[in-house]
């Protein structure tokens, strides 16, 4: 709005029907969504040939990490990219993001200018490239604390650094890949498993619309991945579970495949589209 553009705010539930109607009517140049909405729009048969806004030049995604297959499918169909970025209430601003001309789907991009990032292990030591660590951010927009929550403030705001609670890896070029929330990560056979990585593999199966993965105890009390999935319309369920397991094994590794697969009508989410995995862990 500061440059004279028009912003369109949708007061309704963001269904494919509603959003395609807005895109067609108002013809925006930038579209802001979340991964679950992009997936729903791509797979709604009613809008299989819809092109949305002919003026669209860019889309942005936030709320949850954008799976690689959704980003690629969107760009292939609509001819414009999705920029996936990370911000938080505590930082007020996007601090890690892909950028026009510098997009690799499946990653969260690089540090936004003005922000410094680091990954620390459980002992507070910086981790090497390729290793999993918790993301800390330093930048000018950080809050000073939570109102009347001194202990939580001390845990999150550590000097100049803000603890995000997100687990990431970083490559040699400074590009970050999301692994999951610190309290969502778990080990299988002594190896860390990223729920997001397994979810992305599950959701890339041609029969699956959405997926969420949580740890679940087997008969020996050991944690293994369990997948909750929402299927696309009209899918044949015969042999689906074994097909899904083999697909994940081939995509991300033998030990990461879900030992249990539960089909659900919908995944529990927040108002901003984040999957509430804690509700699934209790099932």
UniProtKB/TrEMBL annotation:
<feature type="domain" description="AMP-dependent synthetase/ligase">
    <location>
        <begin position="2"/>
        <end position="147"/>
    </location>
</feature>
<dbReference type="InterPro" id="IPR011957">
    <property type="entry name" value="Benz_CoA_lig"/>
</dbReference>
<dbReference type="GO" id="GO:0005524">
    <property type="term" value="F:ATP binding"/>
</dbReference>
<dbReference type="Pfam" id="PF13193">
    <property type="entry name" value="AMP-binding_C"/>
</dbReference>
<dbReference type="GO" id="GO:0016878">
    <property type="term" value="F:acid-thiol ligase activity"/>
</dbReference>
<dbReference type="GO" id="GO:0016405">
    <property type="term" value="F:CoA-ligase activity"/>
</dbReference>
<dbReference type="GO" id="GO:0044550">
    <property type="term" value="P:secondary metabolite biosynthetic process"/>
</dbReference>
<dbReference type="InterPro" id="IPR045851">
    <property type="entry name" value="AMP-bd_C_sf"/>
</dbReference>
<keyword id="KW-0436">Ligase</keyword>
<dbReference type="Pfam" id="PF00501">
    <property type="entry name" value="AMP-binding"/>
</dbReference>
<protein>
    <submittedName>
        <fullName>Succinate--CoA ligase</fullName>
    </submittedName>
</protein>
<feature type="domain" description="AMP-binding enzyme C-terminal">
    <location>
        <begin position="197"/>
        <end position="274"/>
    </location>
</feature>
<dbReference type="InterPro" id="IPR025110">
    <property type="entry name" value="AMP-bd_C"/>
</dbReference>
<dbReference type="InterPro" id="IPR000873">
    <property type="entry name" value="AMP-dep_synth/lig_dom"/>
</dbReference>
């Amino acid at each position: 709005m500061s440059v004279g553009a028009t912003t369109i705010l949708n007061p309704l539930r963001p269904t494919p029907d509603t959003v395609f109607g807005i895109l067609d009517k108002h013809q925006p140049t930038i579209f802001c969504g979340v991964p679950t909405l992009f997936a729903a729009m791509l797979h709604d048969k009613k809008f299989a040939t819809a092109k949305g806004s002919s003026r669209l030049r860019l889309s942005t995604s936030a709320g949850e990490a954008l799976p690689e297959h959704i980003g690629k499918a969107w760009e292939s169909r609509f001819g414009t990219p999705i920029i996936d970025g990370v911000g938080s209430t505590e930082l007020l601003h996007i601090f890690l993001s892909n950028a026009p001309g510098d997009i690799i789907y499946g990653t969260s991009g690089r540090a936004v200018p003005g922000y410094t990032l680091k990954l620390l292990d459980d002992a507070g030591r910086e981790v090497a490239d390729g290793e999993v660590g918790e993301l800390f951010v330093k930048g000018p927009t950080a809050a000073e604390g939570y109102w009347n929550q001194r202990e939580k403030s001390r845990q999150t705001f550590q000097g100049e650094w803000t603890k995000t609670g997100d687990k990431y890896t970083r490559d040699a070029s400074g590009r970050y890949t999301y692994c999951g929330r610190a309290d969502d990560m778990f080990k299988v056979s002594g190896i860390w498993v990223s729920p997001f990585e397994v979810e992305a593999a599950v959701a890339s199966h041609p029969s699956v619309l959405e997926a969420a993965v949580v740890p679940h105890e087997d008969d020996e009390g050991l944690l293994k991945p369990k997948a909750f999935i929402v299927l696309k319309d009209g899918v044949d369920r015969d042999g689906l579970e074994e097909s899904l397991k083999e697909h994940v094994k081939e995509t991300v590794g033998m030990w990461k495949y879900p030992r249990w697969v539960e089909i659900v009508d919908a995944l529990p989410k927040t108002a901003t589209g984040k999957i509430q995995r804690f509700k699934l862990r209790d099932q």
